[in-house]
Structures are given as structure tokens and as C-alpha cells.
Design a protein that fits this description.
Layout (H helix, E strand, L loop, with lengths): L2 E5 L2 E5 L5 H12 L6 E5 L5 H10 L6 E5 L21 E8 L8 H16 L8 E3 L3 E4 L2 E9 L8 E8 L17 H5 L5 H15 L6 H11 L6 E6 L2 E11 L3 E6 L4 E4 L4 E6 L4
Parallel strand pairs: 3-4
Antiparallel strand pairs: 1-2, 4-5, 5-9, 6-7, 7-8, 8-9, 10-11, 10-14, 11-12, 12-13
Helix pairs in contact: 1-5, 3-5, 3-6
């Protein structure tokens, strides 16, 4: 049965998963998204990022998008497991050649694209999407999407694998995530089309990853959506636990935290893990 999402002036239908690849290919051609983009949609695989990585190791430069109805070994940052029930969420990876210098701002640009795509797909959202350093998208303070960017070890220089997971139609979460995660369906009060979201996500990625975009624009737009500036945080960084206030985000070096003892600390995303971010007051 198709899922239908109705909003004022906006009706979309979710096709059977078996038709997803051909439907997305049609959208890609009609809207001229990433010229030459190949689309692969799987019923169940271990990881969409792994498929893209394997293709890069075979010499592919992309562009290639891989989607799955279910992942058995999805993952997040620092080896965390990304769990998603079959048939309800968007699990997507994009293999893409990134121009020189583009890798520095890749995470910020992808976060902005994901937030915009969610808002375009679900215009009845009562709040805007916010971004949480280094790789989460939030709705009402809860995680609705996560991003994992990897640079495959291959003979092809400059390629990146951009993995994006969005909680779309999931109705419940494990107890350990119940207070920290949310889906579009639960916020909107009805099913949302994964095909529409995938299309809008690719459109937004093409826009935000354009070489013509000025770095300062990406940084300013990311900070405008940032949910952490001025917040008190606790995080583990380079083997130590840090408590303090977030003063800034340096896209090239990480989170700038003023520790309780007054010391200004730079916390690099690759070496840091958020323990707690206190709600805004």
C-alpha cells in the first residue's frame, strides 16, 4: 500500500519500495540533479556507506547515490550503531568527487542541505530544523537525522562518501533513545514520503555543495541554525572530560569551549564526543 502525505497544497505518494530506484532516476533526470548520477536502491544491505566505499575502491568517482529499505549494520560517528526498522526511514549515501578545498566545509554544507530538504518535504513542521555539532539535525531539541562523512581509502583522490539517515516514518524508538529521538511523522502527525525527501535532499546537496558558494555564506548559515552556541556542554575530547560554555564553532578546527576554569579549548570533531548539551534557557 502506498503511503500518502497530505499538507495544504502539497500531496505526495510513497511508491512501493521496488519502484523507488526507477522513480528516483526519473526525478534526477527531470530536475537535472548531479548530471550523470547513478541510482541504486536495495531492499536490505549492511550499509549504504559501505556500498559507496566499495565503488570508490574500484575506481568510481561517482556521482552515485545508494539507498536501502533496511540496513543490518548501519553506523554513525566513532563506530556507533545506527538502528532503523525496515521500511520507514531514509537511509542514503552519496559518492561524490569534492573539489579541492571543499572537504573543509563538507559537514556544514551537508547539514544545511539536510535541514532544508526536511523543511521542504514536510512544510507543516511546527519548528525549523536546527543543527547540532558535529553531525546531527534536530527538531524540537530531539535528533531527527544524522550524518556520517567518510573519505574512502582508494586510488581516486578527492572523493567522499556522504551518509545521511533521517527518521521519517518511525513511530517509536528504543527506551534508550525515546527521549532524544523523533521522526518527521510523529512531528507532522502523518506519513511523509521518503522518495520526496530523497529527491529534495539531492537537490539541496547539489545547491550547498556548489563550488560557487562562498565559504563565509556556508559558515554564517550554519551558525544561524546552530543549536549549541551559548549552551553549556559536557564532552569527552582527546582523552579528557570538558565542561564549559560553547563560544564559537570553528569549521576547520572544531567546537570552541570556554571551560569552567576560564581556559579556551578547541575540541576537534574527530576526537570529541558530546556527553551532554544543556537545554537553552
Amino acid at each position: 500500500m502506498n503511503l500518502t502525505h497530505r499538507t495544504p497544497g502539497h500531496i505526495t505518494s510513497e511508491p512501493p519500495w521496488a519502484n523507488t530506484q526507477s522513480m528516483l532516476e526519473k526525478e534526477v533526470r527531470q530536475r537535472q540533479i548531479f548530471p550523470g548520477l547513478s541510482v541504486r536502491a536495495y531492499e536490505s544491505i549492511e550499509s549504504t556507506n559501505d556500498i559507496c566505499t566499495a565503488m570508490a575502491q574500484q575506481g568510481s568517482r561517482g556521482p552515485l547515490v545508494v539507498m536501502a529499505n533496511h540496513q543490518s549494520a548501519g553506523r554513525g560517528r566513532q563506530g556507533n550503531h545506527w538502528e532503523s526498522p525496515a521500511g520507514c526511514n531514509l537511509l542514503l549515501s552519496l559518492l561524490l568527487e569534492i573539489p579541492n578545498g571543499g572537504h573543509d566545509l563538507l559537514s556544514l554544507a551537508v547539514s544545511l542541505a539536510t535541514a532544508e530538504a526536511i523543511e521542504r518535504t514536510a512544510p507543516t513542521l511546527p519548528v525549523e530544523c536546527r543543527v547540532k555539532w558535529p553531525n546531527d539535525i534536530l527538531l524540537s531539541g530531539c535528533k531527527v537525522a544524522g550524518i556520517l562523512i567518510e573519505k574512502p581509502a582508494s586510488n581516486v583522490a578527492g572523493v567522499a562518501v556522504i551518509g545521511i539517515g533521517v527518521n521519517v516514518n518511525q513511530q517509536s524508538f528504543p527506551p534508550e533513545l525515546a527521549h532524544d529521538a523523533v521522526s518527521l511523522a510523529t512531528v507532522c502527525g502523518g506519513a511523509v514520503s521518503r522518495l520526496t525527501l530523497a529527491t529534495e535532499l539531492l537537490v539541496a546537496l547539489q545547491q550547498w555543495l556548489s563550488p560557487s558558494l562562498v565559504k563565509d555564506t556556508i559558515i554564517a548559515q550554519w551558525k544561524a541554525r546552530c543549536d549549541m552556541l551559548g549552551r553549556r556542554v559536557s564532552l569527552e575530547s582527546a582523552g579528557s572530560t570538558i565542561h564549559g560554555m560553547v563560544e564559537d564553532i570553528d569549521p576547520f578546527n572544531g567546537l570552541v569551549v570556554r571551560e569552567d576554569n576560564g581556559v579556551l579549548r578547541m575540541c576537534h570533531a574527530a576526537l570529541s564526543r558530546m556527553v551532554r548539551c544543556e537545554p537553552a534557557t
